[in-house]
Write a structure and sequence with these properties.
By secondary structure, this protein is of the alpha+beta class. The protein is 33% helix and 29% strand. The chain is built from seven helices and twelve strands. The strands form three sheets. It has a seven-stranded mixed sheet. Strands 10-12-11 form a three-stranded antiparallel sheet. The chain has a two-stranded antiparallel ribbon with strand order 8-9. The N and C termini lie far apart (41 Å).
Length: 260
């Protein structure tokens, strides 16, 4: 695979490439796309629009903007073409974003992600070192493309750019945590959530999510809704009791929750 490099984008033509990537990565309807004019305007006013390039083409991008807090940046979208996932393009985009933010005095970045998508959770928590303690039910309303089929519940990722945890995850990631024997806040059989356990008190807990959320969305809307209702019951309950998501272990996909 060709080497990937990242840089800020310039001009409306490159912003139009970002619009095309949105269509290809997420299969979104036109109404769900961030248009090129808005991308240009946000960049003019201090936002970030950067692209990842390989073999002479743009293969991914990251888009974020300032907030009412000068030390906080909102990262709205990051997308990479399927053929270039696993190349490190997404990680390079986030490293670029971190360096870009720090050079401008920004110390924290937030973004949202679907709590049921294990690949995204693994990237956000395990590879980047973000954490999450805020649950946003149906945050964007009905969505199109790969997100169609269930309410758009999201977690708010919090990325503390100067923390030792974030630096280590970006440049010297540790092995998966040892979770044998930890209590689990739900019982799952196959892909079906059967029971929520809301009375646990341990310092660390597990919460299992589907192995293939995308397939469930496509093939079984009733099961997708059941998972949404299940996560709405369990995760906000433990967030309110002082827990946050700090990691993910794979196969099966299980979040690690730890007390602040």
């Amino acid at each position: 695979m060709a080497e990937v490099h990242v840089r800020e984008l310039k001009g409306w033509e490159e912003m139009e490439e970002v619009v095309a990537l949105q269509r290809e990565v997420w299969g979104r309807a036109e109404s769900d796309l961030v248009p090129r004019g808005l991308l240009v305007a946000v960049q003019d006013e201090g936002g970030l629009v950067a692209g990842a390039f390989a073999e002479g083409r743009m293969v991914g991008f990251v888009f974020g903007f300032p907030t009412k807090d000068p030390a906080l940046h909102h990262s709205h979208m990051l997308g990479v073409l399927e053929a270039y996932r696993g190349t490190g393009a997404a990680l390079l985009l986030k490293r670029f974003q971190r360096d870009w933010c720090l050079a401008r005095g920004v110390r924290r970045v937030v973004w949202t992600f679907d709590p049921m998508r294990g690949v995204n959770a693994n990237f956000n928590l395990r590879k980047l070192g973000a954490t999450a303690k805020t649950y946003l039910p149906d945050h964007y309303g009905p969505m199109s493309g790969i997100n169609a089929g269930a309410p758009s519940d999201r977690l708010l990722a919090e990325w503390d750019l100067l923390s030792e945890r974030v630096y280590a995850r970006l440049y010297a990631p540790p092995p998966e945590p040892e979770v044998a024997g930890l209590p689990q806040a739900n019982r799952v059989e196959g892909e079906v959530p059967l029971e929520a356990r809301l009375d646990l008190e341990a310092e660390r807990l597990l919460f299992q999510i589907p192995e293939d959320w995308g397939r469930i969305l496509r093939e079984d809307p009733a099961l997708a809704l059941k998972w949404r209702e299940h996560s709405r019951l369990v995760l906000p309950h433990y967030f309110a009791r002082g827990y946050r998501l700090v990691d993910l272990v794979r196969h099966p996909n299980r979040y690690v929750l730890a007390k602040d």
